[in-house]
Predict the 3D structure of the following.
Amino acid sequence: MRICVLGAGAIGGYIGTRLAASGAETSAVARGATLDALRAHGWRVDDAEGVRTTAPVRATDDAASLGPQDLVVLAVKAQSLGAALPSLTPLVGPGTTVLTAMNGVPWWFFQGGFGGPCAGRTLESVDPGGRIAAAVPAERVLGCVVHMSSSAPEPGLVHHFRGTGLIVGEPDNTESARVREVAGLLRAAGLDATVSTEIQKDIWYKLWGNLTINPVAALTGATGDRILADGLVREFCHSAMAEAQEIGARIGCPIAESPADRSEVTRKLGAFTPSMLQDARAGRPLELDALVGAVREIGAAVGVATPQVDTLLGLTRLAAATRP
């Protein structure tokens, strides 16, 4: 099987390493210092105890030289996907599966017949003009929800802290032969892969937890434990989550628990650094559109007012635009 990772950072690098260490032949499309590191050292992952795993990879900045793949692990940040299209499209052929290991609402979310009043809708917040959907239609996609914590302290090196969970599913919510095959491949690589026939619900549930903690962390510089320890901030987060919960109920992604229940689960993670805070500290663009902007857009489409989500989006967007 021809497997290529596009987005060889904290998540893509970890998945690529596990696949290659299990014996799969992998390639990666990268550039700059990441490309140089992969060519020099191959895949590298350090676990929480400092034990390093290495594995070979064919690294290139020319996706066309690789040609169509059987599996593309798409692990770029959502805000970078438009710019990455020239590298993605040469990898996608008639038999290619694109595994979208990304945060937030993806471009294909409503393209598989899911979403009630939003079924078939293109989200301008994540796919302006429908460019991504035109290049990578939903039938090429497998959704993927990532439940692991990793960082990339330097190009081409991953620190893995906890978790190996991946939920994979078809956009049309069927249990296909290919989703079973990909899940089996991931399990053989030591990843805790499960098949879902409700992948949009899984995506929305993860987003529900990330919607507030991530941008508040980027705004304040606070870790997750400090955010939830402040009563006023916690209640603001819960109000924004309640808006997203109502939106979810209208598009087929109901959530039974309360925002307070979800916060108790998050509190158990301790003093963790959300990914958006990691990006803010590194001066990288933030995943605001996929995590927050898409919620606002969908809310407007289904008639749910989102004053708290709007406030969070506006403040974080402004902070990102004006930071040194």
